[in-house]
Amino acid sequence: MLTIARIAEALGAEAEGDLAIEVRGASEPAAAGPDDLALALAPSWGEAIRQGQARAAVLWPGADWRALGLRAAVFAPRGRLAMSRLTQLLDEPPFPEGIHPTAVIDPSARLGDGVGVGALAVIGAGAEIGPGTRIGPHVTIAPGVRIGPDAIIHPGATLGRRVTLGARVIVQPNAAIGGDGFSFVTREPAYVERVRETLGQGPLAVPEDPSWHRIHSLGGVEIGDDVEVGACSTIDSGTIRPTRIGDGTKIDNGVIIGHNVEIGRHCLLCGRVGIAGSTVIGDRVVLAGGVGLADNLRIGDDAVITAGSGVLSNVPAGRVMMGYPATRMDAQIESYKALRRLPRILRDLAAGVSKPHRDE
Predict the structure, then answer these.
(1) According to the model, what pLDDT value does residue 93 have?
(2) What is the number of helices (H) and of strands (E) in the chain?
(3) I need a surface site. Which of 52, 66, 192, 257 has the fewest CB within 10 A?
(4) What residue spans of the chain are helical by DSSP H?
(5) Selection from 66, 69, 84 nearest residue 12 by Cα
(6) Active site residue 259
(7) How far is residue 264's CA from residue 209's CA, in Å, rounded to a whole number?
(8) Residue ranges per domain, the chain?
(9) Distance CA 67, CA 46 (A)
(10) Single pTM value for the model
(11) Averaged pLDDT, 115-134
(12) What is the CATH number of domain 2-90?
């Protein structure tokens, strides 16, 4: 149980009313019981408070908490930031300390103080696990992997060879970090290698030996501090140098990051983003859901790529891109408007309708 005073302190927020009231957890206003803290971060949620039984709530600035029938209130000028701090306060470690008897840990692995290892997890030779890190059931950690302090590795995740994770990294279920990159070559230049030069207009020459020869991945993956990797996401090892993810970057579920990719600090990669090999992304870049980046591109700091866009060329710093192929957002919107007008224009042309030109 937490008092309203303790919650307000953790949120860095002002509170009024009976600050000694204790709550067990948070709830949406209409579903809140007497031991819940209702979350009503905007006036549109105010009426729902009366449908629930909450005695206290987190409210928008200036809310009349007494008129809402509450006995205490915490005021959050920035609601989502308050939710971030509140959920952190209310959450519990997903896995306990201690080693489950079914875990398989190589004798040469080194585990820091307070490490938890779940059932059927495997930790390879020479791995180093930082203090306070929690490793869930069925996690596989390859030999030589290094994990910083206070990381959380959720069930089913796999960390391959030559993988390094910083402090407080969170790896969600079934993510795979450090798999081999998708990198193959034929003995003679394949037709696909000439396409960029010929634009598909050159002769089609079938090589004598069409076999694809694997290029092995020796570079590993380096992930900085405070990074989160979403469920079922994959980060491939670099070929010679590591694939790198900068401090504070957050990666959503189902994201695919190719070999040799470099991602800067505090980026957001939303669900189903795909980044082809050797692309370099700057700091604070946002890639919305379903964005695809071609290989060997450079994406500047603070760029924003909107959902479903396909980026085929470099993007300068601060640019907002949209569409497929992605262009500046304003240009893409104008193109879309023109495309919607096209059927009417064609009908007018077919009917022989023409508007007189205005003299310049």
Answers:
(1) 83
(2) 5, 40
(3) 192
(4) 4-11, 46-49, 79-90, 191-198, 329-350
(5) 84
(6) yes
(7) 40
(8) 2-90
(9) 10
(10) 0.90
(11) 97
(12) 3.40.1390.10
